[in-house]
Amino acid sequence: MAINVRLPEELDNRLGDLAERLHVSKNSLLVQGAELVVARSERAVRVDAALDEILEADAELLRRLDDA
After folding, report:
1. Which of 7, 46, 51, 66 could form a disulfide bond with 12, CB atoms 3.0-4.6 angstroms apart?
2. What is the pTM of this model?
């Protein structure tokens, strides 16, 4: 899917410089960046779900520890 991205001039310049140094396109860098953002978000969701599961499974233990 094609999209247009409007970047602030300074960021566009920095992205262009990095792309040249790495011998890749700016598009490739933007795709990598998007993948990182999505991966972090998905990881945060999984961590939150795991914590909720632990808190639910160990609720009684946590209450007893709190009372100790």
Report:
1. 7
2. 0.68
